[in-house]
Specification:
4-stranded antiparallel beta sheet; alpha+beta; 33% helix
Length: 260
Amino acid sequence: MSIGESLADARREAGLTVTQVSQQTRIRESIIRDIEQGDFAACGGDFYARGHIRSIAGAVGTDPAPLISEYDADHGPLGPLRAADVFEPSKPIKIRERRSPSMTMIVVVVLLAIIGFASYRLVSSHGSKSGPVAGAGVAATSPKPSVRPTPSASASPTLSVPPSDVVIKVAAVEECWVQLTQANGGSQIYMGVVPAGSSMTWTESQAVSIRLGNPGGVVLTVDGQRQPISTALPVTLSYSPRGGSTPSAQPGSSSGVQSG
């Protein structure tokens, strides 16, 4: 029986659909169907194919070791890997450049402030010189108080300061499957296995969610601060950039997911 047939039989015995396995492992349904049919081309290479086999086997409740051995027998054992093959994300990480305030805007603000101040001084000095006028041969009357126009304060536009980026680092003590996506159901930024003894770092300017298949085997650091993780089960955490929304972590574990 092939690897794909073994995984498909285990999934049916567990009473799971391809969609349910995809939701637990965060692997696309099309890739799961291809693997069940013995096609590993969409996995992106042997390294990721082994990780997908481990994740799917963990979700359907079967031992991945014999399946990995069978894969090695068919495709050859995992050879030396370049650092770029391990750490290169499946999708390019898009980092938004922070824009500094426009020099034109700063000049406009300064000019508005100077014009407003000069107008205030001019109106004030003109009003202070005005006084009562008495005609010749006419009895002096009580002077009328001069009315000084109230200078209008010039409105200075508020310069918005862009929020800082959120920096996430995963240092693996044990092999761990990791998926990084934009928060609130956004697009996927990275999905793959972080080998033991290695680490990966992402810098994002928007809120993100990170899912760890083996949280007890990694050290998670956000903005230079280590994040405590109190569970050994797969967990999903969410973080936001500083200066934007306040960083928050909302763990949520799914049963049956094995670290990749």
